[in-house]
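Colleagues,

For the teaching module next term, I've prepared a clean inverse folding example: a structure given as C-alpha cells, and then the sequence designed for it. I'd like students to try predicting residues themselves before seeing the answer, so please don't circulate the second half yet.
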C-alpha cells in the first residue's frame, strides 16, 4: 500500500513539478532503526517524494527497555513495548494530520492492545479530527461503522472475542492494565455508539446522507468521488 501511494506521488510530481508533493511515512520505534540494504535502496528510490517521520521510545518504557531487552524474542513485555510505541506514533501523527481516511483494518493478529485502525478511529474521535470512515470494504472499519449506525456491538469489538481470537491477548491486557494502558472495550463501544454522523459529515464537508454512503458503499468510484467532493469543499484538495 505504501509503495502504491509513493508511486502515485512520483507520477504527480513528474506531471506537476510545481506542487510540493511529499508523502510522510511515519515509523514507530524501533522500525526506523532498521538499516538493511534493501530498505536503504527503497528509501533512496523514493527520496524525492517521501519524508520519514521517526518516533522515539516513549519515556515510560525506559524502565522495561534495557540492554538485555529484545523485541525479537516473544514475551508479554515485548508485546507491550510494541503496543506503546505504535500508540505513541498514532497519537502524534493524528495530532499533525488534516484529515484521516480509514478503510479495512485487521480484526485480529495485530500488534497492540487493540486493532491498529480501530485505535486510529478512537484517537481521531477523541481529538475531533476530520475523518472518512469507509466501511464498505470490510475489516475493523466496517465493524466500527456498524456500531455507529446501528448501535449494536459487533463481536469483534468485544474483549471476549479479541481474547478468543488472539493468542496471549489476555496476558497482554493484564500486563498493560498494570500501567493503565489496557484496551477498554466498554469505553470503545460507548465512544462509537455516541458518535454523531452529522458531526462526522460536517467536519469533512459532506451531508449526513453522503457520509452514510461512504460508510456503506462497496463501490470505490463512489467513495473516491465523495471523499474528493468533501476535501475540495473544506479546502484540503485543490483543483488540479
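(Answer key — instructors only)
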Amino acid at each position: 500500500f505504501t509503495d502504491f501511494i509513493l508511486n502515485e506521488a512520483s507520477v504527480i510530481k513528474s506531471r506537476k513539478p510545481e506542487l510540493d508533493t511529499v508523502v510522510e511515512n511515519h515509523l514507530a520505534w524501533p522500525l526506523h532503526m532498521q538499516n538493511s540494504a534493501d530498505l536503504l535502496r527503497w528509501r533512496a528510490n523514493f527520496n524525492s517524494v517521501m519524508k520519514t517521520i521517526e518516533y522515539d521510545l516513549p519515556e515510560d518504557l525506559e524502565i522495561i527497555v534495557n540492554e538485555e531487552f529484545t523485541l525479537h524474542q516473544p514475551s508479554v513485555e515485548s508485546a507491550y513495548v510494541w503496543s506503546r510505541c505504535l500508540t505513541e506514533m498514532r497519537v502524534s501523527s493524528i495530532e499533525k494530520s488534516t484529515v484521516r481516511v480509514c478503510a479495512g483494518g485487521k480484526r485480529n493478529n495485530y500488534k497492540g492492545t487493540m486493532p491498529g485502525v480501530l485505535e486510529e478511529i478512537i484517537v481521531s474521535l477523541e481529538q475531533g479530527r476530520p475523518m472518512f470512515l469507509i466501511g464498505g470494504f470490510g475489516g475493523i472499519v466496517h465493524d466500527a461503522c456498524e456500531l455507529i449506525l446501528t448501535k449494536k456491538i459487533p463481536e469483534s469489538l468485544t474483549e471476549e472475542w479479541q481474547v478468543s481470537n488472539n493468542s496471549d491477548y489476555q496476558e497482554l491486557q493484564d500486563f498493560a492494565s498494570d500501567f493503565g494502558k489496557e484496551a477498554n472495550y466498554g469505553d470503545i463501544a460507548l465512544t462509537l455508539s455516541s458518535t454523531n454522523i452529522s458531526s462526522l459529515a460536517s467536519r469533512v464537508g459532506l451531508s449526513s446522507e453522503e457520509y452514510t454512503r461512504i460508510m456503506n458503499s462497496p463501490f470505490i468510484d463512489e467513495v473516491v468521488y465523495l471523499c474528493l467532493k468533501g476535501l475540495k469543499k473544506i479546502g484540503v484538495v485543490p483543483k488540479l
